[in-house]
Amino acid sequence: MPRKNNPEQTREKILNVATDLFFTKGYEETTMQDIIKGMGMSKGAVFYHFKSKEDILKAGIRRHHEIGEKILVEQWLPAMTGLNAREKLIRILENNFQMEDSLTLDDSAFANAGLEILGENATNFVSSPGLILEVMRSTSNGIAPFVIHLLKEGLADGSIKTKFPEETAKMFLLLYNIWSDPVIFQCSWEEVERRLRFIQYNMAMLGADIVTDHIIDLNMKYLPNIYKEKELNKR
Hints:
This protein folds into two domains: 1-51, Arc Repressor Mutant, subunit A (Orthogonal Bundle); 62-232, Tetracycline Repressor, domain 2. The protein is 64% helix and 0% strand. The chain is built from eleven helices and no strands. It has helices at 7-25, 32-39, 43-49, 53-76, 85-98, 129-142, 144-157, 165-179, 189-205, 213-226, 229-232.
């Protein structure tokens, strides 16, 4: 018989309850007591798994990337047989947006470093450098190896020309997921598009021309759905 109180199931339930609260109330407005109440468990049972609200958010971000990696490896890459490495990287970036209408926290990948966890209250995120660092580390440690692998594959098949696949991969992820985010580095939508064009230009100059005009268009359509205009006006 399965255990009545499976620790992993309890941990997942805490993450799910907390994520729902972060979406509906906002990260800053959600308290540990809100999460405990939503769980219907004792305070000690929740604190056994997570010591703070920040720990829960960090775990949610890590889970977000882990699930994204699973989708990438088990679903997306097997469907790309016959494509060269550059085409695979472009398809991966496009897939994220094409699936946007049906994606949830638990099944998205490469989606703005997991910041949609915070819903419309994403500006609260910038007040916690530790969380930003967690996102950067999670992105670099989790997704970068796949991008590096595909860039090296591209060197072999001739579709990629960069001399620095590892550095190019990590630079791209930091610029694309962090620097071009209009909440972490607050800016107007016009500036967001300009930053994406800058990334596009530099990736092409580095021999990894994977940021197409279509991908930029998808960004400009998708990002406003995550960060409402009012969020960009907060300073």
